[in-house]
Fold this protein.
Amino acid sequence: MKAIIGLGNPEVKYAHTRHNTGFMVLDELLHRKSLTLTEKFKGFFAKSGDTLYLMPSTYMNLSGDAVIALANFYKLSNKDILIVFDDVSMDLGRMRFRSEGSDGGHNGIKSIINNLGTNVFDRLKVGIGPKDPRIPLNDHVLGNFRADEDELLSQTIKKAADAVEMYIASGIKEAQNKFNS
């Protein structure tokens, strides 16, 4: 069993923000599979075969609360979890799978590490940069994508969903080899 968890903030006002890239990728996956979400595990949840999908409704900084609720219910190992989230250090259009690492200053990942008690879990980082150095980080990640970024964003979300599908079918090594940029 695999759990695919996309990070973001649940309110409509955050729907097109950079911090909601994880939600956008999950939305694409759910659309492809014609899955409907229900409220469960402190988030919005769907299941298809042996794959679980979750979009935490706890807001980004408390994402770990939803992840641990799902993990405990299904008795998931940390190696059964893939977190899809935004990464400000990579340009829009780039992505990278990792199987462990620090939180990199991302509060959602920090919450998950704290709740799981380990930094060893799979993740797909989706680039949302570059960040204008004159803009505070919080304003950047909670800001909407610009209109001139929409086409690249759409392509990136589809490519990230393809990457997650490969991850589900073939594992992280195959997905890394094909999609890490």
Remarks:
- The mean pLDDT is 95.
